[in-house]
TrEMBL record:
<protein>
    <submittedName>
        <fullName>Winged helix-turn-helix domain-containing protein</fullName>
    </submittedName>
</protein>
<dbReference type="InterPro" id="IPR036390">
    <property type="entry name" value="WH_DNA-bd_sf"/>
</dbReference>
<dbReference type="InterPro" id="IPR036388">
    <property type="entry name" value="WH-like_DNA-bd_sf"/>
</dbReference>
Length: 67
């Protein structure tokens, strides 16, 4: 299990890691956005990326949803 986690952190893109975390949260919490539950720092810690990257990815998602 630990090896799978390490493999995911090194081979899966940050965008995909965020997407997987959001899917997992949706299973348990419904349609509540992840950023209303966790801070960007906490999200970054869970998926192994910097807060700044989380911020950029979330802004991209919101921008794409508006279109």
């Amino acid at each position: 299990m630990m090896q799978q986690r390490i493999d995911q952190l090194t081979t899966v893109s940050p965008k995909e890691r965020l997407h997987r975390l959001q899917e997992w949260f949706t299973l348990y919490l419904g349609d509540i956005p992840i950023y209303e539950i966790l801070t960007q720092t906490e999200i970054g810690q869970l998926i192994g990326i910097r807060r700044e990257t989380v911020n950029r990815l979330l802004r991209e998602q919101i921008k794409n949803e508006v279109k």
